[in-house]
TrEMBL record:
Top-level taxon in the UniProt lineage: Bacteria
Species annotation: Streptomyces massasporeus
Name this protein carries in UniProt: ABC transporter substrate-binding protein
Signal peptide: 1-26
Signal as UniProt keyword: yes
Domain annotation Solute-binding protein family: ranges: 88-467
A matching Pfam family: SBP_bac_5
Lineage: Bacteria, Bacillati, Actinomycetota, Actinomycetes, Kitasatosporales
Keywords, ordered alphabetically: Signal
Keyword field contains Protease: no
InterPro entries named in the record: Peptide/Ni-bd, SBP_5, SBP_5_dom
Length: 558
């Protein structure tokens, strides 16, 4: 999944071990608020974000900030209860976590009775079917690829707007939805925690403009939404706590304000005056502020350090930077100490040498390049010599934020040592992923980060490196390195059919190593995300699935 300076995820593993591993380190800062005392009712939570969401449309959202905000507006078939010591999979719209049959190629979900939209009408199985189907339309692009990959007939289906339905989603009655998959998917009920599997009532679907008009079946509904300026949520009076095992409705409203500089948000929340006392941030603390704020004892009770099941990386476009010696030279030349400094130093995360992060099934520890995180310029120069000593000029895409621009400067400085000139292309942060994921916009080097969609390698490597998906998803391509290696593709297919977890994990480890042999990406850091809230914000849970401060139990202290 994407971003937070984070991204999306795409891997398929043995979730349980991962969830336990994540749960053990889940909470930082003041998560104690979530379990102690009685939540106050009323008041408005202010959310301060540097940029608008790419999307809130449930079938298009694929950033962690957007998904986290959608949890306030939308219900999904299943969800994660994170109020305990580790995330627990539960039924959300569904009464339970679903029933697999026919070797996990058929999954059946029964909906709760009495879940209501903002107009008081009841959510039906037909609404879930329609919601999933609309994600196949070319107008509704950008979301996760799983429905198209797994549902029978999904590869040819073009969505419901021409009046066609997808027969592999069946609704025998108003409260039952059945999915027919073309392959066994043992963790399909973890996929259905994502918003793409939520209900959309056909009568209220506004197509590509649904982002600002999302019809709520969660505790809060959209009151007003001015893109790039402000989103105001108010209570959905038809939401009932009795039908919702995950969320609460403690505050009267949520006011999301966009467009302040990252550092200005940090300083405002740190100062804790006026509305800052009832504010929280969704994007991480700016790299320039992180080291200082992370070690400030006075902020401890409202500082959240959330380990992300993910990776911060630099993608090298293998179709533009064709010589593997040049790509390997970039691997050796990059000084990760200055790169990490741009994101805030050691508080941001450990240096990475693999694309799978520790704690994700399939992770294997290896390092094919420099043993020193500061790089090995001599080795890089030797590789450039083998490539014929070219002096290329390369473009690098980054978000237009101070943190990212400092990162780009660090990359530029590193690569100049080996004769590569770098031109920096800053892209508006609110459109960053939709820009770089469109295959019309190709850069030589692209900053990315990725968080597993659920704690499984299956939601990382296949999404980021299956070259066959590039043509399939020209407007939502996640393969930023444009790698299309038959060896990697064969391992993806092999892992997809494996039911033995240990063997499947070994295959993912092999896949990770092959991707690094191709020098398609430079893994930078295994990420932590750090955020703050004001002193009057209570009930914040560390969401270790999205690596966001979860707002599902949030309240204002009076």
């Amino acid at each position: 999944m994407t971003r937070r300076t984070r991204r999306s995820r795409t891997v398929t593993l043995a979730a349980t071990a991962v969830v336990i591993a994540l749960g053990a380190t889940a909470c930082g800062g003041s998560s104690s608020d979530s379990g102690s005392g009685t939540p106050g009712k009323g008041g408005t939570l202010t959310v301060l974000n540097k940029a608008d969401f790419d999307h809130l449309d449930p079938q298009r959202v694929y950033t962690t900030e957007g998904q986290s905000m959608d949890q306030e507006i939308l219900r999904t078939l299943t969800g994660w209860d994170e109020s305990g010591s580790k995330p627990k999979l539960v039924g959300d719209l569904a009464t339970d976590t679903g029933t697999p049959s026919k070797g996990a190629t058929v999954w059946t979900f029964h909906l709760r009775h009495g879940v209501k939209y903002q107009d008081g009408t009841e959510v039906t199985a037909q609404d879930v079917k329609y919601g999933v189907e609309r994600g196949f339309s070319s107008d509704i692009n950008g979301g996760p690829p799983y429905a198209a990959q797994w549902l029978v007939g999904g590869s040819d289906y073009k969505g419901p707007y021409q009046g066609k339905q997808l027969d592999s989603i069946q609704t025998p009655d108003e409260y039952t939805v059945v999915f027919h998959l073309k392959q066994p998917v043992a963790d399909f009920n973890e996929t259905t925690t994502m918003t793409g599997w939520s209900a959309v009532p056909k009568a209220h679907d506004t197509g590509s403009t649904y982002d600002t008009k999302v019809w709520s079946d969660g505790p809060y509904m959209i009151k007003s939404y001015t893109k790039n300026k402000e989103l105001v949520l108010t209570r959905n009076k038809h939401w009932s706590q009795a039908t919702d095992p995950i969320r609460q409705q403690n505050v009267d409203g949520i006011d999301v304000r966009f467009g302040q500089d990252e550092s200005a948000i940090d300083q405002q929340i740190k100062a804790d005056a006026g509305t800052a006392q009832t504010s929280i941030q969704q994007w991480p603390i700016a790299g320039s502020d992180l080291a200082q704020l992370a070690s400030d004892p006075s902020l401890k009770s409202r500082y959240y350090k959330i380990p992300a099941p993910g990776i911060n990386y630099l993608a090298i476009n293998t179709t533009r930077v064709k010589d593997i010696h040049v790509r390997q030279a970039i691997e050796y030349a990059l000084d990760k100490t200055t790169v990490r400094g741009a994101f805030g130093g050691s508080a941001y995360g450990d240096y990475a040498t693999t694309m799978l992060s520790p704690g994700i099934g399939g992770y294997q520890k290896f390092n094919l390049y420099s043993a020193n995180p500061a790089g090995n310029v001599a080795k890089a120069k030797e590789l450039m010599k083998q490539a014929g000593n070219p002096k290329p000029t390369m473009s690098i895409a980054v978000e237009n934020t101070p943190t990212e621009e400092h990162f780009a400067d660090a990359v530029k400085t590193s690569l100049e040592h080996i004769g590569i000139h770098v031109n920096i292309s800053p892209i508006d942060a609110s459109n960053y992923f939709s820009t770089i994921n469109n295959t019309k916009n190709q850069y030589d080097l692209t900053w990315g980060d990725w968080i597993a969609d659920w704690p499984n390698a299956s939601t990382v490597l296949p999404t980021l490196f299956d070259g066959r998906l590039i043509k399939k998803n020209p407007q939502s391509n996640q393969d930023l390195s444009y790698l299309n290696d038959p060896k990697v593709n064969a391992l993806i297919d092999k892992a997809a059919t494996m039911t033995d977890v240990a063997r499947r994990n070994a295959t993912y480890g092999q896949m990770d190593e092959q991707i690094l042999k191709d020098a398609a990406v430079v893994p930078l850091m295994y990420m932590n995300f750090s955020d703050m809230s004001g002193s009057k914000v209570g009930g914040v849970i560390s969401d270790t699935i999205l690596a966001e401060p979860s707002l599902v139990h949030v309240y204002i202290k009076h």
